[in-house]
Protein: ABC transporter ATP-binding protein
Organism: Brevundimonas pondensis
Amino acid sequence: MTTPSPSIDEASLAVATHALSKLYGRSTALEAVDLRVPEGAVYMLAGENGAGKSTLLRLLLNLEQPTSGRAEVTGLATDRHGARVRARVGYVPEGFGMGPRWMTVERWLAERTVYYPAWDAGYADALCRRLDIDVSRRIGQLSKGQTRRAQIVAALAHRPPLLLLDEPSDGLDPAARDTVLELVSDHLSQTGCTILVSTHLIYELDALVDQVGVLSHGRLTTQAPRDALRDTVKAYRIRAPEGWETAPDISNVLHRSRFGREHSWVIRGDETEVAARIAASGGEVRDIASLTLHDAVVHLMRQGAAS
Ligand SMILES: Nc1ncnc2c1ncn2[C@@H]1O[C@H](COP(=O)(O)OP(=O)(O)OP(=O)(O)O)[C@@H](O)[C@H]1O
């Protein structure tokens, strides 16, 4: 079951999906996903390998069709307006296939202008310089990271209202990762665009993210503003009598560990309510701490995988 988000104005969503499902044969890749990405948000999509993140992004671009359900991207129904949706989106795909091996990067970038009328050649040049791209090289000669750099230029250079980034730093060296984060951050402050980004490197996006979604086995098990997660997913240090761990009536325990009579539990819920329940069951709350975004999301991923 998806954790409900606080009320969101449906009219101001950059992306909305409605019970979006995708089967490959008899195997479920996505199951009744109700994604809500507010306009102007940086929405991080996390989830284990095979959770359905890339499939979801491909469906949003109508590169593949859902088995059931529907999606709207920048207000357009993806099934009827696939080409218009793609023109409004900057997409970094999961894979590294770009184009024919003989084509130079320069020519490949020039061809993007056909698809994107708003292509800004000056901005594309500046991005190529920042990312140290030799545009005279042929696609077949590029390393994985060099390919990724060119894909990032293509995604940003038409200043689309929405970026769909599928593990954008995959293949990049650490310095290039930092440069890409700076570029995306600058791009965001200049354009105010919306970003939906799938990643396994949660800490990398820490400074940017304001919405979080967790996919697990094709289901969106968590969807919440980042601040709401910070306020509700907490680590409780508890001193308790022997055998206490079976006593409390507490739901949404994401993690338990124990050292002697001291317990450390990660619990999702209202802090005051959780603390009261612990106290009522005979436990003494010694400390309550917030988690990093990385730790909170990893606990939520594990809970999603286990449910
Ligand atoms: N073309 C396809 N044919 C059959 N199954 C597919 C296809 N594409 C994806 N799948 C399956 O759908 C599920 C979701 O895959 P997807 O690539 O969307 O996951 P992901 O969350 O992006 O994973 P990762 O983090 O490993 O990139 C997986 O079980 C995968 O095997």
